[in-house]
Amino acid sequence: MRIVDWRWIAPALAGFVLLCGGVRSAAMKNPPATGVARRPARTAATSARVMRILRLLQKRAQTLHNFTADVRVKTHHLRTGETDIDIGRIWYQRRGSRTRFDIRLDTLVVDGAIAKRHADHDFIFAGRWLIDRNGAAKIFRKTPVAPPGRRVNPLELGEGPIPIPIGRNPAAVLREFTVRLVKNRRRAPGLIHLRLTPRHKNMFTFKRLDFQIDRRIRLPVKIVRINSDGSPTTATLRHVRINQKMSHHFRIQTPPAGSGWTVEIHHWKQEK
Length: 272
Fold this sequence. Notes:
By secondary structure, this protein is mainly beta.
């Protein structure tokens, strides 16, 4: 049985995507004040441009109320040499302090051939919960990502399951990551390529993140994550529609007893 890394698949808001397991490591929740690697030397112009981009992404969170997009998540497995592509759609919505999104996967492609067509399968983030709802198998799993009484912002690095520098103070991003601009190999005048590398190797569950930011919508539309084993996972958003009328039913209700569903609700475990 194939286990989907749905924390990574959950693509992120308006241009990024993937729920990712890129959250802080418990061991590095409070990184040491000493031994912090210095940022590599950069020209003043490059440093200033990086700061402008980070500030732009910080402000973008204030104007992002909803978005929908088609999503493709490609994972290459180094051990087997196999490449999987999950194809689906994402709906994101923010109302006041409440943020939620739904990623619905409908097709799995393995090494270029359709291996499975999903039916009624959603990965949902709501407040402080991640929900894996498989309507075909009638399985409902609900897992907390924050302690009771606390909501997380999935747009902020380290706060939620989506490691994206949206809504985060640029100074805080630079404390935890080395950030640099990368020249696009192909002609892509409408895209900005940012590379984030954690300053502490045990702080996050990934080695590197690369963002392709669309200048027009001011959001990442492609993310490449280099996992801890060196394998790449690439998430791409297409046909992004931002802040338009959206009617979508977020199916977050727990199925009642006797409905024929298998329900698994996990509880928050306090770190020691």
